[in-house]
Amino acid sequence: MPKIFTDENRDEIRLKLLNKGFNMLKKDGLSAVNIDKLTEETYIAKGTFYNLFENKSEFMYHMMIHERNRAKKKLLSYLNSSGKLTRNSLRDYLKWLSTENPNVFAFLTDAEKKRLVSSWSDKYIEDEDNDNKTMHMLISLLESPAKDPDWKLACNYMKLIAVSLTTKKAFIKENYNDMIDSLIRQIVDILCA
Fold it and tell me: What is the pLDDT of residues 58-75, one digit of tens each?
């Protein structure tokens, strides 16, 4: 990146690209995340894009990390003054997740997921215990966690919500929100005392 960019400018440009790219992905899928169109719509030179990201694959990886970090920051905003999640704040956070859906993979087909992940170097591949770590981090933030919560079941319910967000048309429209609310209640009941 040319010397005329400060670290702050660089971060602003990077965020602008990541946010616009994610909106493109959510609206029209991976093929819509076209670097020419992305740089044109953000008024950022294509060369600047390639100074920030080696290629589209690396850009998608950084988009995934950006969205995960955004979800974690949002989680922290639901903590009470003691730094804990109540049943209600956990429910509200899960409701936000189900509305916002910051999961990049939720907007990819299985073939796109395989192609994207296979193009990432080993440094980009998450370790296999990610679900375990994420769920136990969430449980550690609970004000009143269940004695022995079935974190795997709660995790699967969360994944069902994520999958349903990208396949909404497969569900009966009139009961869709009730289904999501029911899954959220199940998660809260599993994790909270």
Answer: 999 899 889 988 998 999
